[in-house]
Amino acid sequence: MQLNDLLKRIPVLEIHGDDSREISELVFDSRKVTENSLYIAMRGTVVDGHSFIASSVEKGATAIVCEEFPEHLNENATYIKVKDSSKTLGHLASNFYGNPSEKLKLIGVTGTNGKTSVSTLLFDVFKNLGYDSALLSTVEIRIGEKIIPATHTTPDVITINKILAQAVEEGCEFAFMEVSSHGIAQNRIEGLHFKIAGFTNLTHDHLDYHKTFDEYLKTKKRFFDQLEDSAVAITNVDDKNGNVMLQNTKATKRSYALKTMADFHGKLLEVDFNGMLLNFNGKEFWTTLTGKFNVYNLLLVFGIASELGFESDEILQAISRLKRVSGRFETFKSDGGIFFIVDYAHTPDALENILDSINDIRTKNERLITVFGCGGDRDHSKRPEMGNIATKKSTLAIITSDNPRTEDPAAIIKEIEAGVEPQNFSKYTSIPDRKEAIKMAIKFAEPKDIVLVAGKGHETYQEINGVKHHFDDKETINELWQLMSK
């Protein structure tokens, strides 16, 4: 693509050199520069990409986008000065791949909990409706039946546009995307045109990155502030921050709720471990998904599909054929009568939601044993809160390791234990080795008891001191059960 075509609709402060050069690739990592590529120099928190401009030109970059021209300008390259390289990258990526987000209906879902579930459920609903779509989530990236491994909650903006361009090429009409706070803060959704934006909820998370809850909230809100007036914003008005998301948006405003008046209103009529009977906008249906948090997830799916022009009956029929999302309230019963649940819940709110859902369903004759931990190198303040929630709402809580990363697992456990109230001291034990903790839960459990293993869900690894070791909660439960039941 010619450089001048690539720069269309992009505010440029100054150009030095030939703007008709042919560009073969966009690169923001100087180590990946190739012949005839355009290198975008971005200022990071640790490294300033402007330091690598000269070496990028030497490697073959024929164009440089930067916020400040270097002292020496090489005649073999064209230099483009912009106000913000990070934001410009998104618009360059959109142009380079033919603005794919304008050629399909792109739906973004944000919030603390439920992003992955809602995005994946939307993908599956539209498959049930007969449409090939794209999915960009934490668990996987899909284009129709093709699966691409996911490495971030929100990939970099070049990768996003590349995936969306492939989706357009393969005839997809819709794309469903998980939009993380990190992705918003790092401009990874810049230049994308969203048809619909959905908000799930906002609770305590990622304060290691955003520092304050207010900053976290403002970052999420930015997604809605940037929507065009042709877009639709759907928010959960049962969440106290739901209406905040809509304060400055130009998009059409829609709402969903279980407790208050809303455009899309839901009721939970019956629930057990096999599923739920629900009522959405006056229409009853059954789903194999379970738990109150899933009522909210499905209601947002229903709202988004409705805003895309589908009839209520066909949406609800498609929803009723849904299967559970991997690692989200996944249930299985052992041949010894113990009920196992594996869930990704790794925040205080998510853990409380899953425990409340289980306690709503169980008859109280069964005991609830919870195995959980907290990730290392992440927000410390949620650890005691999760210790309090787990011990308060379980018969027995077994505190263990999650992904300790570079932290000492024993130190993480101590911080979790600090939140346990004195009356619950007898309701927990700590076992740093996750496999041993699961083994203890199985040993303690009797027929009809419920064992919840929380925190890792779909993950198939445990990160310890920078190394990812294979570890799958479901696989470990099955393996231990087989060994221990012999």
TrEMBL record:
The EC number(s) this enzyme carries: 6.3.2.13
Q: Give the Pfam families listed for this entry.
A: Mur_ligase, Mur_ligase_C, Mur_ligase_M
Localisation per UniProt entry? Cytoplasm
Q: Which residues form the Mur ligase central domain?
A: 109-304
Q: Which EC class is the enzyme in? A: ligase
Name the residues that bind meso-2,6-diaminopimelate. R378, D402, N403, P404, R405, G455, E459
Pathway per the UniProt entry: Cell wall biogenesis; peptidoglycan biosynthesis
According to the entry, every stretch annotated as the Mur ligase N-terminal catalytic domain falls at: 23-97
Q: How is it modified after translation?
A: Carboxylation is probably crucial for Mg(2+) binding and, consequently, for the gamma-phosphate positioning of ATP.
Q: Where does UDP-N-acetyl-alpha-D-muramoyl-L-alanyl-D-glutamate bind?
A: S30, T153, T154, S180, Q186, R188
Annotated ATP binding sites: G111, T112, N113, G114, K115, T116, S117
* N6-carboxylysine modifications at: K220
Q: Does the keyword Zinc apply?
A: no
Which UniProt keywords are listed? ATP-binding, Cell cycle, Cell division, Cell shape, Cell wall biogenesis/degradation, Cytoplasm, Ligase, Magnesium, Nucleotide-binding, Peptidoglycan synthesis
The cofactors it requires, by name, are: Mg(2+)
What does this gene product do?
Catalyzes the addition of meso-diaminopimelic acid to the nucleotide precursor UDP-N-acetylmuramoyl-L-alanyl-D-glutamate (UMAG) in the biosynthesis of bacterial cell-wall peptidoglycan.
* PANTHER family per UniProt: MUR LIGASE FAMILY MEMBER, UDP-N-ACETYLMURAMOYL-L-ALANYL-D-GLUTAMATE--2,6-DIAMINOPIMELATE LIGASE MURE HOMOLOG, CHLOROPLASTIC
NCBIfam families, per the entry: murE, PRK00139.1-2, PRK00139.1-4
What is the protein name given in its UniProt record? Answer: UDP-N-acetylmuramoyl-L-alanyl-D-glutamate--2,6-diaminopimelate ligase
The organism of origin for this protein: Chryseobacterium indicum
